[in-house]
């Protein structure tokens, strides 16, 4: 009863209160904006101001209490990562915290909204109210969790020596932290001690002392980095500094000496050469490579043959007349001219004063007309190559006309005249078609080649009114000038002068008169030439094709460009006609360097002229800034052409030539070298790789060569033209393209031709004797050469032995005949000189086989004695069979018996193996019917002669 009373009281007391909570009149209130901070390693957000929610319904139960906070995105980010919780419902204190660990590096700031809710009117939260949404900004604070990392593990830089740099190199390290405190690199440090470098807090490295490349070329050291949280880099960086020598603009890799082995083809002159501009920007580069070969022959290495031989090798038209031939009895007009040494076989004539004039006789040029001819010559003017006296060929000297060739030609019914002259740097041809009617015409050329002091090849072809000039194979057009000035008409008489012009004048006494030796005409020479001339030829007809003219001048050595296809864009290359100057032009340094390395030297001669060729490289640069453009000094060096491998010219097929005298006395004579063989071998290094094989080798192989001369001469005294001669058909020699010189001292073949041609011609050379003038022996020597005697063969000697026929001797004693063989010393003095004035024409004493004869004669004398006894025994037997015989007839009349033995038969069989002498041997006297010719053995014949005198026969 009491319990029910207490429960009723409590219910009555709570009823009024429940009726009051139903009045939840106010919304909770919070700040409109919060700033929060949270650490990466924590989840509680520290807000400013703190999170509190207020409700005016307080202290009412439920209505005045805060039951929770709700997080919304609110247009921001990070709402899903945070949550808000109520710490005290009565005070409304709340807390914002992260649901998961935050990463400052991925997102440093978060923005969202938060809203507070009260507890409503009762425990079930009915009629609860919510506050407005407040914006919350949360910043994630960084933790130093990352260490610095260098951008590059290794740094390399090159610096020039001799300077202190403010900065050589900058190293850089990065930190993965997000905050400035921990993500910034506060300082760098050089770990390697005692290096002349320093580094600042920004990573800039500089040198602390002047660097010297000779002392130390490379420096290597280690650097590290620290962030502001004092965390060191996980891996240090390595720095390499190269100290370069002071940059000097110019060519690097220049080799002063370059060697060339003959037969190597094209060889690069500058394989490692490159241009250093020291980073100076240039827009044009020009390099001129000059090879100086003017000291070799006529300006370069050409075929070492005479001008006539070169003309034949180039296929030029024949019929030229050599106006300056070597002096000889038939060409004596050049005997008084001074000559200079020349590497080739062409004579170089010097003209330097009034006495140096060559008067060519009319007979030498009778075939050349005056209106259709070609004149060729080599000329050099200026410089110090002349002998004696000053020259006036320089540009600053007084310019006087100098005549090279002055010629008056007789035509059918008139005379024409022309002269080739030089005047300063001008070449002129004065042509007078008809001395009696037409006026002269002058063709003029202004050429640097006339006065530059170098050798040049000139070809002037006249087909009036057309005139063609080739200089070094290049055509030049003339300026046609009609000479209206007063000219003295030349004397209408055929004459040709080299080095001046002859003026006939008997009236002018103030001039220095002289007399022309051929005609006795008085006059004087004018317009003397001063310079060097060689190979001056005159030929009727037009000039040869351009290819022949180029061949006559062509150098066999010069500069060339290796591979034009590899020439880069913007590059240009130019080579002059003589290939002594090569010019390269471009705008890119790298392309230019590659092009320079392709410049080559080539020499197509198998036997190049050894020696030194000076080499020069001149460079000009154009820069964007003309004031500070680089200037490079010329480079000088030299090319050395090594000595070529010498060819071995071998002659074989000589030895002993044994023939009967009758063969030599025949109309054709006997061939001296019927089995001649000429071979040429060369020991050299060959490049078999170029032929698709591997490697190279040193070998000796047969090569196809061109001989230029062979000479046959007698050993000892010269030939006696009344008794002996060497015979060679001149017409056949000329058809083979060779020239023949036949004298008593030698017979010579000259001209560039193949070995086979020389073999055929020399095999037809025959030796002939006059009847009754046979000697005992003769020796002849043969030698050949090529490259104008530069390489010679061995001397091939042939010994000629004559087999004499034997008649009956006046002495019947065979012992005396034996003594004739046993004592040949009385003729030794005569044999040495090949003159046997008192020798019996039927004697047989071969000088080269004296020892053999002595032995053979002793043996044969024994055989003779045995033969005599054998004959006498046979005679006795025949007498016994006959029985009685008349007195005086019992003995055999052998008074005229003669036994003749030819010891040279055995000698011939051993030396030359030549049988058949008996058929050609002449026999005198009557042969016995019992001993016909040919019945005796080859080495012995018994010839029986009977005498008509009646006396007792002699026995042997």
Plain-language structure description:
This protein is mainly β. It folds into 5 domains: 109 residues, Sandwich (Immunoglobulin-like); 96 residues, Cadherins (Immunoglobulin-like, Sandwich), CATH 2.60.40.60; 131 residues, Immunoglobulin-like, CATH 2.60.40; 214 residues, Sandwich (Jelly Rolls), CATH 2.60.120.200; 137 residues, Immunoglobulin-like, CATH 2.60.40. It contains 13 helices and 60 strands. The strands form 15 sheets. Strands 22, 23, 24, 26, 31, 32, 33 and 39 form an 8-stranded antiparallel beta sheet that branches. The chain has a 7-stranded antiparallel beta sheet with strand order 25-35-27-28-29-30-34, with no helix packed on it. Strands 47, 51, 53, 54, 56, 57 and 58 form a 7-stranded mixed beta sheet that branches. Strand 27 and strand 28 form a beta hairpin. The N terminus and C terminus are likely disordered.
């Amino acid at each position: 009863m009491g319990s029910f009373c207490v429960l009723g009281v409590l219910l009555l007391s709570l009823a009024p209160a429940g009726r009051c909570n139903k009045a939840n009149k106010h919304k909770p209130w919070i700040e409109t904006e919060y700033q929060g901070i949270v650490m990466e390693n924590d989840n509680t957000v520290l807000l400013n101001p703190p999170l509190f929610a207020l409700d005016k319904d307080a202290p009412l139960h439920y209505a005045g209490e805060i039951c929770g906070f709700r997080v919304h995105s609110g247009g921001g980010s990070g709402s899903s990562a945070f949550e808000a919780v109520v710490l005290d419902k009565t005070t409304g204190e709340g807390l914002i915290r992260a649901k998961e660990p935050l990463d400052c590096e991925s997102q440093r700031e978060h923005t969202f909204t938060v809203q507070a809710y009260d507890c409503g009117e009762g425990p079930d939260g009915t009629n609860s109210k919510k506050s407005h949404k407040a914006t919350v900004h949360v910043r994630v604070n960084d933790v130093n969790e990352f260490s610095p990392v260098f951008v590059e593990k290794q740094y390399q830089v090159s610096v020039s020596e001799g300077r202190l740099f403010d900065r050589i190199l900058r190293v850089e390290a990065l930190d993965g932290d997000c905050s400035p405190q921990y993500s910034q690199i506060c300082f760098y440090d050089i770990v390697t001690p005692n290096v002349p470098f320093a580094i600042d807090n920004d990573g800039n490295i500089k040198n602390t002392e002047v660097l010297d490349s000779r002392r130390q070329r490379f420096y290597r050291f280690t650097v590290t980095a620290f962030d502001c949280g004092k965390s060191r880099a996980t891996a240090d960086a390595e720095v390499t500094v190269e100290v370069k020598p002071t940059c000097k603009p110019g060519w690097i890799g220049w080799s002063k000496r370059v060697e060339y082995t003959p037969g190597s083809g094209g060889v690069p002159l500058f394989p490692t050469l490159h241009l250093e501009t020291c980073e100076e920007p240039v827009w044009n580069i020009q390099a001129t490579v000059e090879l100086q070969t003017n000291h070799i022959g006529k300006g370069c290495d050409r075929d070492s043959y005479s001008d006539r031989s070169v003309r034949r090798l180039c296929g030029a038209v024949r019929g030229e007349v050599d106006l300056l031939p070597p002096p000889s009895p038939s060409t004596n007009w050049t005997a008084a001219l001074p000559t200079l040494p020349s590497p080739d076989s062409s004579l170089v004539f010097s003209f330097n004063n009034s006495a140096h004039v060559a008067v060519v006789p009319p007979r030498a040029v009778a075939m050349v007309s005056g209106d259709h001819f070609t004149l060729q010559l080599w000329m050099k003017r200026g410089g110090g190559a002349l002998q004696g006296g000053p020259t006036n060929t320089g540009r600053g000297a007084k310019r006087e006309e100098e005549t090279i060739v002055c010629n008056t030609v007789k035509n059918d019914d008139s005379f024409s005249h022309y002269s080739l002259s030089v005047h300063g740097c001008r070449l002129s041809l004065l042509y007078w078609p008809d001395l009696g009617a037409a006026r002269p015409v002058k063709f003029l050329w202004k050429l640097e080649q006339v006065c530059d002091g170098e050798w040049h090849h000139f070809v002037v072809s006249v087909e009036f009114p057309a005139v063609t000039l080739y200089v070094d194979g290049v055509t030049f057009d003339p300026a046609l000038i009609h000479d209206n000035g007063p000219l003295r008409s030349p004397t209408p008489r055929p004459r040709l002068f080299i080095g001046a012009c002859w003026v006939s004048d008997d009236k002018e006494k103030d001039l220095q008169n002289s007399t022309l030796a051929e005609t006795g005409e008085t006059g004087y020479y004018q317009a003397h030439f001063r310079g060097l001339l060689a190979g001056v030829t005159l030929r009727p007809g037009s000039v040869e094709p351009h290819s022949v003219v180029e061949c006559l001048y062509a150098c066999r050595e010069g500069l060339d460009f290796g591979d034009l296809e590899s020439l880069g864009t913007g590059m240009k290359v130019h080579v002059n006609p003589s290939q002594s100057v090569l010019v390269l032009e471009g705008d890119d340094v790298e392309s230019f360097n590659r092009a320079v390395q392709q410049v080559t030297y080539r020499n197509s001669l198998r036997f190049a002229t050894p020696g030194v060729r000076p080499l020069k490289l001149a460079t000009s640069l154009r820069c964007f800034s003309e004031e500070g453009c680089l200037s490079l000094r010329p480079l000088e060096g030299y090319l050395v052409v090594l000595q070529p491998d010498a060819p071995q010219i071998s002659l074989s097929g000589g030895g002993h030539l044994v023939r009967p005298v009758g063969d030599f006395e025949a109309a054709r004579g006997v061939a001296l070298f019927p089995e001649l063989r000429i071979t040429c071998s060369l020991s050299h290094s060959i490049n078999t790789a170029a032929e698709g094989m591997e490697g190279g080798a040193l070998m000796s192989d047969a090569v196809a060569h061109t001989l230029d001369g062979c000479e046959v001469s007698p050993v000892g005294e010269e030939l006696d033209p009344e008794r002996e001669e060497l015979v060679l058909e001149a017409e056949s020699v000329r058809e083979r393209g060779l020239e023949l010189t036949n004298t008593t001292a030698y017979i010579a073949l000259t001209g560039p031709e193949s070995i086979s041609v020389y073999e055929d011609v020399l095999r037809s050379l025959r030796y002939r004797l006059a009847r009754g003038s046979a000697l005992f022996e003769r020796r002849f020597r043969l030698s050949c050469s090529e490259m104008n005697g530069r390489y010679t063969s061995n001397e091939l000697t042939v010994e000629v032995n004559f087999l004499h026929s034997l008649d009956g001797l006046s002495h019947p004693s065979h012992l005396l005949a034996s003594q004739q063989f046993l004592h040949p010393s009385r003729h030794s003095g005569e044999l040495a000189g090949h003159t046997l004035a008192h020798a019996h024409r039927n004697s047989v004493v071969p000088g080269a086989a004296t020892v053999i004869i002595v032995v053979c004669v002793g043996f044969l004398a024994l055989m003779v004695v045995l033969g005599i006894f054998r004959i006498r025994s046979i005679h006795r037997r025949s007498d016994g069979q006959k029985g009685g015989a008349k007195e005086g007839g019992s003995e055999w009349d052998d008074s005229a018996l003669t036994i003749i033995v030819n010891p040279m038969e055995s000698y011939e069989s051993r030396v030359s193996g030549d049988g058949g002498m008996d058929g050609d041997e002449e026999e005198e006297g009557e042969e016995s019917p019992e001993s016909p010719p040919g019945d005796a053995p080859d080495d012995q014949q018994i010839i029986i002669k009977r005498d008509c005198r009646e006396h007792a026969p002699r026995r042997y």
